[in-house]
Amino acid sequence: MTTSHTNGAPVANGFAHPVAQKIAELDASKVVVNLTQNLKTVPPVEDLVFGQTTSDHMVMVSYNPITGWGTPEIKPYGPISLDPSCSVFQYSTSVFEGMKAYVGPDGTPRLFRPEMNMARMKRSVARIALPAFDTAELLKLIKKLVAIEARWIPNVKGHSLYLRPTIIGTRPSIGVHASDHAILYVICCPTGPYFRTGPKPVSLYAVGEQVRSWPGGTGEFKLSLNYAPTFYPAQLAAEKGYDQCLWLLGQDQHVTEAGAMNFFAVVKRDDGDLDVMTPPLDGTILPGLTRASVIALVSAHPNDILLPHLPPAQKLHVHERLITMADLFAWSDAGTLAEIFLVGTAAVVAAVGRVGFEARELEAPRHEGGLGPVAKALFDRLTDIQEGKFEFQGWCVPIDA
Ligand SMILES: *Cc1c(COP(=O)(O)O)cnc(C)c1O
Questions:
Q1: For this UniProt entry, which residues form the secretion signal (predicted)?
Q2: Which residues pair with 165 in a beta bridge?
Q3: What structural domains and CATH numbers belong to the chain?
């Protein structure tokens, strides 16, 4: 039997390293709530800029390979202290989610399809070998945090509390390995409408040289490492006078996404119906839950639910298919391109006004008030569901205080 000596005292090997100990799972019922003594002043809604104001509290829980998931805490929002060598700084072991808490006219906070965010987070975490956790427990912690932060959800149409669940690898070593230490946390930012001046159409610059994602890559996961490489092309697009990049891929220059939103085109058919098209989930596309919700709502119209403002006789056909730049120009030249719009949690639905591509410029049809009829119908229906004014398939989950 070997012994080691600490401060001169013999320590039996195996005694100092209790290998038989069971690793703890994430358990929301153990949460310790430590409320701040200094509540912040909630800024007036008209002063809110996306992502710039954080609420009073955050969820935080750590994982280490010996004991597993620790005691979850809800505690005052504040800095985290980390070893400079740790995994997230060196190897970008970081996953995030973007979701919102809404409050409707009845004052009850709600989440929109949160189990989809949890399922996606689980897949992202697995992709970069961060420690797994029970996402149902994380959702309980998120609900508890939202209930505590309810005064931060502006009770004004189009406003919400943006939630940013995050997990980072905190293994303190520059060795190139999976991180077996992690911190999971959730922060909240009150937000107003993404486009404060109303739904102003965005302009896109089509980029094929720097790609956002590629077959076999990580584009379908919400990994932080997917975003940093998009900032430089976005800067070039901004210098050319465009709001965001349209991310192309392949010899055929097909569209994947734009900015950090999913892409849709609406095209008129000979029979008067409309084709609503979006690229298929082939591994290069982030599977947005707004995208999935748009597909479900368009598929349900007009038989199961009527989308607002659209004529009941207007038939819509969803297609998940490749869309090339050549397709977009061909539809535009033929006069059948009706709308281009982008979807995602932050802006919900945003109209696209023009697309710059090499030396050419594609003008999407302009619509009174910014959004075209299909985009407008989807925006109104989605925001009504989110604020609890319209019930659809249990998408909206109320939070009991
Ligand atoms: C988050 C995100 C989206 C939108 O996803 P939602 O779940 O609808 O918010 C689309 N594309 C990218 C690249 C994203 O990161």
A1: none
A2: 186
A3: 28-191 (3.30.470.10), 202-387 (3.20.10.10)
Phi-psi label, residue 158: left if phi above 0, alpha if psi -120 to 50, beta otherwise: left
Predicted TM-score (pTM) of this structure:
0.93
Mean pLDDT of the chain: 93
Atom of ligand 1 lying closest to residue 257 CA? 11
Q: For 321-346, what is each residue's pLDDT tens digit?
A: 999 999 999 999 999 999 999 999 99
Cβ–Cβ < 8 Å for 218, 225: yes
Q: How far is the CA of 288 from the centre of ligand 1 (A)?
A: 5
- Placement of tokens 């949690």 in the chain: 345
- Tell me which residue of 190, 174, 6, 183 sits closest to 82, measured CA to CA: 183
In Å, what is the CA distance from 112 to each residue of 134, 305, 384, 385?
19, 18, 11, 8
- 8 A C-beta contact, residue 317 and residue 274: yes
HSE (CB half, 13 Å, CA atoms) of 196?
Answer: 8
Q: Any residues with Cβ below 6 Å from ligand 1, and which?
A: 98, 222, 257, 260-262, 286, 288-291, 344-345
- Between the CA of 227 and the centroid of ligand 1 the distance, in Å, is 11
